[in-house]
Amino acid sequence: MISKTVLVTGGAGYIGTHTVLHLLLAGFKTVVVDNLDNSSHLAILRVKELAGEFRNNLSFHNADLRDRDALEQIFVSTKFDAVIHFAGLKAVGESVKKPLLYYNNNLTGTITLLEVMAAHGCKKLVFSSSATVYGWPKKVPCTEEFPLSAANPYGRSKLIIEEICRDVYNAEQDWKIILLRYFNPVGAHPSGYIGEDPRGVPNNLMPFVQQVAVERRPALTIFGNDYNTIDGTGVRDYIHVVDLADGHIAALLKLDESDIGCEVYNLGTGKGTSVLEMVKAFELASGKKIPLVMAGRRPGDAEIVYASTEKAERELNWKAKYGIDEMCRDQWNWASKNPYGYGSQKDSTD
Ligand code: NAD
Ligand code: WQD
């Protein structure tokens, strides 16, 4: 059993909760810092319940990463072996309207974290990057060496943080940093007890589909059916959030075993699925019909994006286990048990 202590920033969020649960079950002591800007304390309580005998290995601090004093106190009270850094704002459209909010939160939060980590001699980091840094790739599958670009301030914040991490390692080579580029995380824990609960109108495909299925929204708008793909709709690499959570454990173990420097890995399945294929799989899993409205392309969307998984398989010894049928089954299980996420109809923003 592992007896290490990990700080998880943004651990109350969608990917964070699933990862924290897996960390606890693997024997890690886990400290979460989250300002609950896009999450609920109930999610932390549910993770504790799911963790059973390991529940007391989880502690939670409601704090903003940019609050240096609060972060200092957390590092003074606990010695961390590593940090997994999820905390950040992630809505692409909002980032276009409020770039300074995104740069302030994502960049200042990360810089403050890195400074406090260095001051306390904790120099092992796993960072949540994104496939968004591949922009509209010229070919697929995307390998980690592809040229990088950003189509919006959110994506640019990820690119800049990746560069900051490379600079930090180049300056002080006792840092060990893994940048994980997630493709499209979907699904939920099979218990149906934790899952994704976005505030307001969902930006992403599957949370929107889920809200149509529970009749919170009348129809799914398909953004473009004139792409050069199997059925004209955009193709993405959807990955089960439980597989993604496991990818973080693999990354942590990698930080321990080797002189890794600053290294980047894709976390995807390597398979492309169109919007219509995904909708069909969800209809099958849920028994619900999803009404569709065809619309034009969404600005900034790429045609086809999916991952090369070779590097992660080879070096992290990690491979996604689940396909879209399991993703849709678990997403529906979560949605049907929690149609209003962690809240209730009364406090929803519909
Ligand atoms: P999420 O919004 O559910 O979780 C992020 C968490 O960070 C939230 O709980 C939020 O309250 C917290 N947070 C934000 N700013 C903070 C701050 N300044 N201080 C403290 N806490 C703060 O998002 P998620 O889907 O779980 O994504 C986690 C990470 O993965 C993010 O960095 C995101 O950009 C990245 N990512 C997500 C996806 C995706 O599609 N979900 C894809 C690629 C990368
Ligand atoms: C998937 C497909 C849409 C909604 C985004 C971010 C990326 C990463 C993951 C954080 C596309 C189509 C969607 C809808 C639709 N997040 N779609 N109707 O765009 O691949 O990536 O989330 O890092 O940075 O950009 O994911 O789920 O928004 O879209 O037709 O209501 O579904 O056009 O083809 P995307 P998505």
Automatic annotation (TrEMBL):
Gene Ontology molecular function: UDP-glucose 4-epimerase activity
GO cellular component, one term: cytosol
Domain NAD(P)-binding: 7-330
GO biological process, one term: galactose metabolic process
EC number: 5.1.3.-
Alphabetized Pfam families for the sequence: GDP_Man_Dehyd
EC top class, as a word: isomerase
Membrane-spanning residues: none
Protein's pathway: Carbohydrate metabolism; galactose metabolism
Keywords associated with the record: Carbohydrate metabolism, Galactose metabolism, Isomerase, NAD
Cofactor: NAD(+)
Family: Belongs to the NAD(P)-dependent epimerase/dehydratase family.
Annotated PANTHER family: UDP-GLUCOSE 4-EPIMERASE (PTHR43725)
NCBIfam families registered for this protein in UniProt: galE, PRK10675.1
Protein name: UDP-glucose 4-epimerase
Native organism: Lupinus angustifolius
Taxon lineage: Eukaryota, Viridiplantae, Streptophyta, Embryophyta, Tracheophyta
